[in-house]
Design brief:
Helix content is 74%, strand content 0%. The chain has 87 residues and is mainly alpha-helical. Helix 1 runs antiparallel to helix 2. The longest helix has 37 residues. The protein starts with a helix and ends in a 16-residue tail after the last helix. The model has no long low-confidence stretch (mean pLDDT 88).
């Protein structure tokens, strides 16, 4: 596995774990009307949006990398499948 594949997988893992952690923290904390708690919830929600974007992009990158690795050519992750001659 190359450095790119490893980096994409770690980014995907870290973003996914961060998303789950943020959701669990908000669930455990529960609703509140205090200004400090509302500001904290806003920061967690804002971070979750960025983590979701990172997870989706890294997941697509991992899929493209794995496809190119299995096909043996770099362009295979973005090109449509061509029928083989004689099929």
């Amino acid at each position: 596995m190359s450095g790119l594949g490893l980096a994409l997988r770690w980014i995907y893992l870290a973003a996914s774990v961060g998303l789950v952690g943020g959701a669990v923290m908000l669930l455990i904390a529960g609703p509140s009307d205090r200004p400090t708690a509302l500001a904290w919830q806003c920061r967690i929600t804002r971070a979750a949006r960025w983590l979701l974007l990172a997870a989706v992009l890294a997941g697509a990158g991992v899929l493209a990398y794995q496809t190119a690795l299995l096909e043996g050519r770099a362009r295979s992750s973005v090109s449509p499948r061509r029928p083989r001659a004689g099929s």
